[in-house]
Design brief:
The complex is a heterodimer of chains A (about 170) and B (about 180).
Chain A (H helix, E strand, L loop, with lengths): L24 H16 L8 H19 L11 H25 L17 H4 L1 E8 L2 E8 L6 E2 L5 E2 L15
Antiparallel strand pairs in A: 1-2, 3-4
Chain B lengths: L2 E9 L9 E9 L5 H11 L19 E4 L2 E4 L11 E5 L6 E3 L2 E2 L2 H9 L26 H5 L1 H4 L6 H5 L1 H5 L6 H6 L1
Parallel strand pairs in B: 1-5
Antiparallel strand pairs in B: 1-2, 3-4, 3-5, 6-7
The chains are: A alpha+beta (about 170), B alpha+beta (about 180).
Chain lengths: ~170, ~180
C-alpha cells in the first residue's frame, strides 16, 4: 500500500479538520461531477482544447482535494472510505484520458473535437498511451496492428487490405 | 409523488460500542425506489459510516439480504412505497454481525459446502480428457431434477428466517438442504 493512500481517520488524523470532506465521500463524487460538467459541458475527452486545458486544471484541483480527504469510522467495511479511494482513482484516470484526448488532434468515433472535426488516418491511425511519470502525465504513440479491418475509401473501414482485390466473403447458406 | 420515510436501522460497530443500538434517518423516497436506494441516500446525506453489503442491485447476487420490517428480503427488490412510514432494517439473524446490516456469512456457507452442493460423477467417461469437467446434458432427468434447486442465489434470507436454525446449531438450514 502506498504510504500516502487515504486512511480512515482512526489511523491517520487530519491535521486540519476544516479540510474534511464531510460525512460522505459520495458527496465529493457528486460535487466533482457537477463541477466538471459545469466547466466544460462534455466529457473531458471531447472538449475543445482551451476548455480541455481548463478541465485538466479542474482535475488537478480535484486531485489535490482528494489527497486532503479524510474519512471517519475506521477500516471495518467503510463504504465512505472505498468511495474516497474510488474518487482518487477516477480523477487519475480522467486526467490521463484528458491528456490523451488533447494529444489526438482529430475526431474519431466518440472522441469528437470541434476544433478538429475530421478523422485523419494518415496521422492518427495510432494507439495513444498515457503514463503518469511523477507529477507529469506523458503521452506516447505505438503503431496500430491491423488485423481484420483496414482504412478504406471515404473513411469507411473495409475487410481487405489496401491494394488487394476485394475478397468474396463467404457468409454460408 | 416523493415521500419522506423514516429508516430505523439497527446499528452495531464493535470498534465503538459492544452493544447494538437503533438509529433513525429521514429518507426522501421517489416512486419505484427500493430499500437499497434508501440506504445509499443515507450513506450520502446522513451517515457515511453505515455498513451494508450490495453488489448487483438487481436481485441476482443475493448480497443485500436483510430483515425489512421484520421479514427477510433483498433490499434491492423491495419497493419502499409498499412499506409504511417507518421502515425497520436489521441484519440477518443466526449469523454474526460484522457491522450494522452486514453479517458474516461463513456459518451459512460452511453448511452449504458440507452437503457437497454439486454433481459428482460416478466414473470418468472415456471421451473425457483428464482434468476436464464432465458435461451434464440439460435434458437429462438428473439435470432437470435439480432445476428448481439451482434458482437459489444463496442470499441467506431463508437461513435467517428459519426458527430451527436459530434453535439448533447443528441444523444445516434450508439453503443447504435445498441443494443437498
Amino acid at each position: 500500500m502506498p504510504p500516502n493512500l487515504i486512511r480512515p481517520r482512526s489511523k491517520r488524523r487530519s491535521k486540519k479538520p476544516s479540510n474534511r470532506c464531510g460525512a460522505s465521500a459520495a458527496r465529493i463524487r457528486l460535487r466533482s461531477a457537477t463541477r466538471c460538467s459545469r466547466r466544460c459541458g462534455k466529457t473531458s475527452a471531447s472538449c475543445a482544447p482551451g476548455r480541455s486545458s481548463s478541465a485538466r486544471a479542474a482535475l488537478g484541483e480535484l486531485a489535490e482535494r482528494a489527497t486532503r480527504c479524510a474519512v471517519a469510522n475506521g477500516r471495518r467495511w467503510n463504504l465512505a472510505w472505498q468511495q474516497a479511494l474510488d474518487v482518487r482513482n477516477l480523477v487519475t484516470v480522467a486526467s490521463l484520458t484528458a491528456r490523451a484526448a488533447l494529444h489526438r488532434t482529430e475526431s474519431r468515433g466518440s472522441h469528437a473535437r470541434s476544433d478538429f472535426p475530421e478523422k485523419n488516418d494518415r496521422r492518427w491511425l495510432v494507439n495513444i498511451h498515457t503514463q503518469r511519470d511523477g507529477s507529469h502525465d506523458r503521452a506516447f504513440e505505438t503503431p496500430v496492428k491491423l488485423t481484420r479491418a483496414y482504412p478504406g475509401a471515404g473513411g469507411l473501414p473495409t475487410l481487405h487490405p489496401p491494394g488487394e482485390p476485394a475478397a468474396t466473403i463467404d457468409v454460408g447458406g | 409523488m416523493n415521500a419522506t420515510k423514516t429508516f430505523r436501522i439497527r446499528r452495531f460497530d464493535p470498534e465503538k460500542s459492544p452493544s447494538p443500538y437503533w438509529a433513525s434517518y429521514p429518507v426522501e423516497i421517489k416512486p419505484k425506489q427500493n430499500v437499497l436506494d434508501g440506504l445509499f441516500a443515507i450513506l450520502e446525506n446522513h451517515e457515511g459510516g453505515l455498513a451494508f453489503r450490495y453488489s448487483c442491485r438487481a436481485g441476482m447476487c443475493g448480497s443485500c439480504a436483510m430483515r425489512i420490517d421484520g421479514r427477510e428480503g433483498l433490499a434491492c427488490r423491495v419497493w419502499v412505497e409498499a412499506l409504511g412510514p417507518t421502515v425497520t432494517l436489521e441484519p440477518l439473524r443466526s449469523l454474526p454481525v460484522i457491522k450494522d446490516l452486514l453479517t458474516d456469512m461463513t456459518p451459512f456457507f460452511e453448511r452449504y459446502r458440507a452437503v457437497d452442493p454439486f454433481f459428482v460423477g460416478e466414473s470418468p467417461t472415456l471421451a473425457q480428457p483428464v482434468g476436464e469437467p464432465v458435461r451434464v446434458d440439460p435434458s437429462t432427468p438428473a439435470r432437470e431434477r435439480i432445476d428448481v434447486a439451482l434458482e437459489c442465489i444463496s442470499c441467506g434470507a431463508c437461513y435467517s428466517a428459519c426458527p430451527t436454525v436459530a434453535a439448533n446449531p447443528h441444523f444445516l438450514g434450508p439453503a443447504a438442504l435445498n441443494r443437498a
